[in-house]
Amino acid sequence: MRQSYAKSRNLKRFLSVAIGKRRNSSGEDDNTEDKAFSVKQINEMEISHLRPGWRCFSYEEILKATDGFHKGLCFLGFERSFFGICSSKSGLGRFWIGADNLVGWGGYAEVYRGVAEDGEAIAVKRLTRASSDEQREKDFLTELGAVGHVRHPNVSALLGCCVDGGLHLVFEFYSRGSVSSNLHDANSPPIAWKLRFDIAVGTARGLHYLHKQRRRRIIHRDIKASNILPTESFEPQISDFGLARWLPSEWTHRAVAPIEGTFGCLAPEYFTHGIVDEKTDVFAFGVFLLEIVTGRKPVDGCHRNLLCWINARSYLNDGIIETLVDPRLGEEYDMGQLKRLIFAASLCTRPTATLRPSMTEVVELLEGGEITQEQWKMLEEEEEEEEFWGFDDRDDDDNRCSTPSTVTMWQLSATVFADDLDCLGMRSIV
Ligand SMILES: Nc1ncnc2c1ncn2[C@@H]1O[C@H](COP(=O)(O)OP(=O)(O)OP(=O)(O)O)[C@@H](O)[C@H]1O
Questions:
Q1: Which of 318, 324, 310 minimizes the C-alpha distance to 398?
Q2: Residues 6+ apart with CB under 8 A from 223
Q3: CA 46 to CA 48: how far, in whole Å?
Q4: Which has more confidence, 384 or 241?
Q5: Where do the annotations place ATP binding (predicted)?
Q6: ipTM strictly over 0.85?
Q7: Which helix (H) or strand (E) holds 141?
Q8: What are the residue ranges of helices labelled H in 251-408?
Q9: Which residues pair with residue 238 across a beta bridge?
């Protein structure tokens, strides 16, 4: 009890410093918040530049907005209610249809829908009590530190935070669920090809911003379809910065422990050595592209890895990329865009980090820029070293992924593109 009180005080101090403390023009630390906003001559632009894009919410505000973090019906003191229907373990055959404002949850947080006083739809992410240990608090603050500094049309917009009654982050509310829930929900119509392509491009732009357009680079570390939330107009928003890390300009990478993230999306150098840099996200983005194209999860219910499946599928079908497309789309896709997505994915998921493209190059490629032969050609010895990285834990036909004869993603794209790159404005790479 005492400890959590002390932590809360620290957090409040952190927030007041983060919001209130500024550097004055001579670069000295100075609490200029009051001064800055009391000087009438400062024009609007300067003020909006100084002012953080978010604010502190009171606990009463978020309580009111979420209707007291309303979860719908609870049974016998269970803390969490569920979407859909679940039965009690008592065997009494009781069924509850639960969840009211609870819209999602992850490893350490619950997310509630709410309506702010001004009528804006908000999402309140609350650190769950069960996970309020110091490490989780740190992750939560990391998320605040990262997302509180970013503003981009493809990055989830932080509206504020609240440290009373627990830790809370307040975001704009995105009512369409995640790309993952839309892609894999068998009961709703498949996402149209055009939207898939736009989501890929928008997400690439958001990542490019995090890696390249900020003074200090941000590595997200958990790029995956369930962390990409489309807005009403299907503009993808990169969300969930709980694992994000700053990368100072003088550092090439950082080594982190423990290794966290999502199975099936982890870059080999991160998975094996904990090495994190932009290429960690680039790899995960490549897996995301494949998920969008195929409609398959990075790791399916049978523990089959998507990259393995693609390699096996390509091998069995002589590298015909049409066979990779989500069957729910039928013939409804654009072949030129498909080739771009597959080509980009093949580069992004290269096992050797240094041979993967930067997000600048990925955006360029997806948006139709010319890719020159020299830029992407691998040296022979590099090609030999490029062993496919994946899991070989099943011996069915669909999982022939690590045998030397298997066509890798890279070889697949090279085969397919030899004839077709010209028509895409790119030159042959083989
Ligand atoms: N701004 C938002 N608007 C609508 N729904 C959201 C929003 N943010 C998150 N969600 C929903 O809540 C879910 C969990 O959120 P989030 O991924 O941020 O939590 P987490 O605990 O960090 O998860 P993880 O275990 O994946 O790290 C998301 O998958 C999404 O469905």
A1: 310
A2: 203, 207, 238, 265, 281, 284, 285, 288
A3: 6
A4: 241
A5: 125
A6: yes
A7: helix 134-147
A8: 268-273, 278-294, 306-316, 335-348, 359-366, 373-376, 380-385
A9: 155, 228
**Residue located via tokens 């009171």:** 58
Kindly state the tokens that stand for 423: 């028509």
- The one-character DSSP state at 191 is P
149: confidence class by pLDDT, cuts 50, 70, 90:
confident
* Catalytic sites, residue numbers: 222
- What integer is the mean pLDDT of 383-405? 40
Distance (Å) from CA 254 to ligand 1 centroid: 26
At residue 319, the pLDDT reads 65
**What does the pLDDT read at residue 252?**
78
Residue 1 has pLDDT above 50, yes or no: no
CA 270 to chain centre: 16
Instruction: Determine how β-strand 85-87 pairs with β-strand 55-56.
Output: unpaired
- Rounded to the nearest angstrom, the distance between the alpha carbon of 105 and the centre of ligand 1 is 6
pLDDT of 238: 97
**Which residues does 336 contact at the CB level (< 8 Å), separation at least 6?**
423, 424
The single residue listed with the structure tokens 């069995």 is 316
Antiparallel, parallel or unpaired: β 55-56 and 158-162: parallel
- Taking Cα atoms as reference points, which of 32, 35, 39, 37 lies closest to residue 17? 32
Q: What separation, in Å, do the N-terminal and C-terminal C-alpha atoms of the chain show?
A: 65
Mean pLDDT over each residue of the chain, to the nearest integer: 73
Question: So what's the pLDDT on residue 318?
Answer: 67
Return the higher-pLDDT residue of 13 and 90.
13
To test the pocket of ligand 1, the residue of 83, 101, 102, 103 to mutate (highest count of ligand atoms within 8 Å of its CB) is: 103
Pocket test for ligand 1, best of 176, 240, 266 (most atoms within 8 A of CB): 240
